[in-house]
Design goal:
Elements: E1 6-8, H1 9-16, H2 20-28, E2 35-36, E3 41-44, H3 45-54
Antiparallel strand pairs: 1-3, 2-3
Helix pairs in contact: 1-2
């Protein structure tokens, strides 16, 4: 990890468009790994990437409609 770049809580919050308190809660709850260097928390790029990967949703299927069904014309829908 010494080769990682580190970001402040504010930088992570700005990047993810969330409040700084939200980032601090993730750290406190153990969801986001961070180190306290005395002047505040620092988050390594790899730790942020791991956090984002663990919170991603399944990829959206190109054929999925609002109800998750296939379009009417799709041959795979027919019995």
């Amino acid at each position: 990890m010494p080769q990682d770049q580190y970001q402040t809580v504010r930088e992570v919050a700005d990047r993810l468009k969330v409040a700084e308190a939200t980032v601090r809660n993730w750290i406190r709850e153990g969801q986001l790994r961070a180190i306290d260097i005395g002047k505040g928390w620092r988050i390594a790029d790899t730790d942020l990437a791991n956090f984002l990967l663990s919170h991603q949703t399944a990829p959206k299927m190109p054929w999925a409609g609002l109800n998750g069904s296939r379009p009417e014309g799709d041959a795979k829908c027919r019995p």
